Model the fold of this input.
Amino acid sequence: MNPSRSALRNALRSPRRSWVLPASVLVGAALGGGYGVLKTPEYAATSYVIVVPGEKSAPAAAVGFAQAYGRVATDLAVTGDAQVWAGVSAATLRSSVQAATSPDAPMISLTARASTPSKAVSMADGVARALVLNSTHASGSTGVKVVQFSRATKPVEPVSPSAPLSALVGGCAGGLFGGLALLVRPRRAVRAEARHSRQPSAAVPGPSTAKPATATAHRPEPESV
Done:
């Protein structure tokens, strides 16, 4: 039998430990549900821009420049201009906006997360507008420019987990920690119980049944006349 399964079964059979696992599940579910209720919902909006090559640039160069613009989309040079249209600070834009590129297409997606749908849209479109403006200033040397492909749409549902889902995750985590707590109980107690179960009962003293050895006297044989 697996030692871990045997230990868990013995722990569950013990009346003092049978409440540990259900209590851990309930505590985890309560904490997870409370976190889901108290946490501010978060909304995400995504704006798309595309890199267009100029007349003297090769079409394949647009993919490489898209990768480069995707890396600098959340730098201070871009977010410093985007904060004017987004209505938030540049530090908030750097921490709340994520840029993603494709290895096959010269497209950049700008996803912003905020506490309200309108703010998420403003942040995503603000960074996209600032990226278009910066690429226009550098188009003479790069030979490409960034144009708006699709504006962000207002999200209707939050992307953060709901309270029931948080409670479910918390209950699973609580059950896991409760099971681990039962398995890693002190080894000293386990060894003491094992020694107690293996200890033989003391022998009850009784009358001795051994017969005492009798000494046989050696008698000399009579001499013949």
